[in-house]
Hints:
The structure holds two protein chains of two kinds.
Chain A: H1 7-57, H2 67-83, E1 88-94, E2 100-103, H3 117-125, E3 129-132, E4 149-157, E5 163-171, H4 173-260, H5 267-294, H6 304-317, E6 321-327, H7 334-355, E7 359-366, E8 370-377, H8 384-390, H9 393-404, E9 407-413, E10 419-426
Parallel strand pairs in A: 6-7
Antiparallel strand pairs in A: 1-2, 1-5, 3-4, 4-5, 7-8, 8-10, 9-10
Helix pairs in contact in A: 1-2, 1-4, 4-5, 5-6, 6-7, 7-9
Chain B: H1 2-20, E1 26-30, E2 33-39, E3 45-53, E4 56-64, E5 71-78, E6 81-89, E7 96-104, E8 111-118, E9 124-130
Amino acid sequence: MKVLRNPVLQFLVASLLLFGLTWWGTERLSQSAAREEALADARITTQLIATSVAEPAIPRGLINGDVGAIDRFDRRVGDRIKESDSDIRRIKIWRADGTVVYSDKTKLIGQQFELDPEQLTALHTQTTEGGLSDLRRAENQFENREGNLLEVYTPIKSPEGENLLFEAYYSIDTVQQRASQVLTPFRRISTLGLIAILLLGVPMIGVLTLRLTRAARARERLMGRAIDASEAERRRIARDLHDGVVQELAGTAFALSGAAREPSVSPAVREDLVTSSNALRRSLRQLRSLLVEIHPPGLNAAGLPAALEDLTAQASTAGMEAQVSVAGLDGAPDQVVTLVWRVAQEAIRNAVRHGQASHLEVDVRGDDRQVRLTVRDDGIGFDPATTKSNGSYGLRGLQSLVQDGGGRVTVESAPGAGTTVRMAVERG
Amino acid sequence: MKTRTALAALTLTALALPLAGIAPATASGGGGGVRTHGGCQGAAVWKLKAKPDSGRIEVEAEVDSNHSGQVWDWTLKHNGSVSSKGSNKTHGASGSFSVNRRMTNLSGTDHFVFRAERRATGDVCRGTISL
C-alpha cells in the first residue's frame, strides 16, 4: 500500500490513464472524421465516374434490355471503371421502377428490386446519397463475400432522356485506410507528447517528492521539539504550583481547620474558619484538576484509573455524580493510554461545560485487540447534524485527535437524550 | 403425291445450299469453351470460338479466304441484337482476319451469330455458336 502512495507511481499511473483516454478518444474522432471524409471522397468519385464515364457511354436501348447495347456499354465502361484507381467493387444502373439495366455482375441485369428510400431520394431530388450497404438486401446477394461496403448513388440520364440511378460500391477498407491516415499523426503527437511529459515529469516529481519528504521530516522534528519544549514548560509550571501554591494552600487549610477546633475560639469565628477552610479545600481540588490537565501524572495503564478520577473531579465540583471504571487494560502501550486519557478529557470537559448533566459515566474496556472508551452523560444533548454544520471546534478537535492516534470515534447525541462518546483504538 | 413432294424438297435443298455458299457447321467443345466452323460462299471458311472469361464470354470469329487484301463487312449478334460490327481486310499468308469481342454473360444460354460479307463479291459467311 505504501507503494501506491508514491507520488511518482501515482503520476505514472495517471499519465498512462490519460494516454489511454487520449488514444481511445483520437481513435473515435479519427474514425468518425475518416468515415465522413471517405464518404465525401466516394460521393465525388461516383459523381465523376457517373457523369464523365458512364452517362456518355450509355447506348440507346440499354434501358430496354437490348443485349447488344449491354455488351457495348460493358466493353466501353467496365474496363475503364475497373482500371480507374477508385476501389469500386460493384456498379449498378437502375431504372426508377427498380430494374437493373446494367451491372458489372451481369446476372443482375434485368432483375427488379424495390428501391430503398435513399435510392428514391437520390433519384427524385437529383442528389448524390450514400451510406453503409445493407448486405442482407436481395440486390446485394453477390456482395455478401465482399465484406462491409459503402454504397453511393447519383442520378444520370439515358440517351432517351430517362432518369437513371448510377450506384457504386466501395470497400470499407478505404474507410479504414483513411482512418489510419488521419489517426497516425494524432497518435504520433500524443505518444511523443506523453513520452516527453514522462521524461520531464518523472524526475521533477521525484525531486519534488524528495524535497517535500525532507521538509516534512524537518517539520516533524521541529514540532517534536516544540511539543517537548511545551511539555517541559508545563511540567515546570505544574511542579512549581504543586510544590509551592498547592502545599501552601494545603498547609493553610490544615491550619484553619486546626484553629477552628480550638476551644477558645468563639462560635462565630469558628464558623468563619471552617467556611474558609472548606473554600480553600475546594480551590485545592480545582487546582489539582488544573495540574492534571496541564501535565497528567505518569500516564500508563496502572495510573489511568487515578488520572480519570482526577479528571472527573471537575465534574464533581460542578455538582455531577461521576463514575469511573477501567478493566482489561493491563499491558496496554502508553500511547494508547494517553489517547484514551486525552479523549476522556475532551469528552468530560464538554459534558461539564455544555451538558448540564447530573450523571457522568466513564468506562474503559480492553481486550487482546482493542481498547474502547465510553463517556456517557445524561445531559441536554445536542443535534450532531447541526453541530457538524456549525463546525464545532471541540468535536473536530476530538476527531482529529483520535485519527492522529490511529483510532475511531463516534459521538451519539440528541436533544434531551444526553451524549455518548465512543472511541476504539487498536491495542498496537 | 407425298413421294413427289419429298423429292422436290430434297432437290431444292441441294440447289439452295451451293447457291447460299454456306456449308453445314461442325461444333465441338472442351476446356470450358465451344468452337465451330463452316464454309462460306466461295472458297472461304469461317471459325467461331466462345469461352467463359472472368464472368464474361470471349467470342472469337475468323474468316480464312487464302487471299490477302479482301475487304469484309461483318456483324456479331448476341441473342439477336447487334453487339458489334465492323470491316476488316484479310492479311498474311493465310489471307484471314479475326475478330475478338467480350460479351456479357447473361442468365441462361447465350446465342451468338457472326455474319461476314465480302464487299467486292457479296460472298457471305454465317456461323452461330451458343454457350
